[in-house]
Amino acid sequence: MVTQQDLSNEPRTPTPTIQLSLRFSSTRRGARLARQLAVQQITEWTGLPHDSDCAHTVAAVTAELASNAVRHGSLPGRDFRLALLLLPYALRVEVADTRPERRPEPASTTSQSLDAPSGRGLLLVEAYTERWGWECRDAYTKTVWGEVAAPSPPEAQAATNSVKNPL
User: Fold this and answer.
1) Is the separation of the CB atoms in 66 and 30 below 8 Å?
2) pLDDT value of position 111
3) Confidence band (pLDDT; 50, 70, 90) for 161?
């Protein structure tokens, strides 16, 4: 797992093959729509079915980052931005919110009680992603991102073939 502090020698945002960026209202409905769009877009780009492991992983990461933006990173009347980037080695999910002063703590450094009703979301992001981190690209926003391993070419090709030729 790589967090923001470990990324000083890397470019800020890798050059994507394909990308999509949209704004959503900072509401539970906005977070749900962001998750649904992310799954739809990733399946279109990769040819994988909606019930693939990759699609489930993208859904979980997007849901957590979007809900964190709504719960911890919103100001009244301000939206959050979802960006999806198809990189040569990964699928990158970025969520930008309007609270740059509220920076996420690495999941491994926070101690949450097992009985606590919340506080374990970044543990999920850490578990599902190859790397994750955050960055403040300007004085008004913070972007939290996670990179999900791209499906191997044979896996993606098999998924494409099964969609074209079900039996």
Assistant:
1) yes
2) 56
3) low
* Strands 142-149, 131-135: pairing kind: antiparallel
Structure tokens that stand for 53 in this block: 């492991």
Q: Which residue matches tokens 């729509």?
A: 33
3-state secondary structure of 90: strand
Strand partners, 24: 80
Residues 6+ apart with CB under 8 A from 3: 106, 132, 133, 134
Which of 39-43, 76-80, 126-130 ranks highest by mean pLDDT?
39-43
Residues 6+ apart with CB under 8 A from 37: 22, 82
Here the tokens at position 70 are 């709504």
Owner of token pair 């877009």: 41
Q: By the 8 A CB rule, do 136 and 99 touch?
A: no
Residue 5 DSSP SS3: helix
pTM score above 0.85: no
Name residue, tokens 């494409």: 160
Distance CA 102, CA 18 (A): 30
Q: How far apart are CA 114 and CA 7, in angstroms?
A: 31
- Of 61, 69, 84, 58, whose CA–CA distance to 24 is shortest? 69
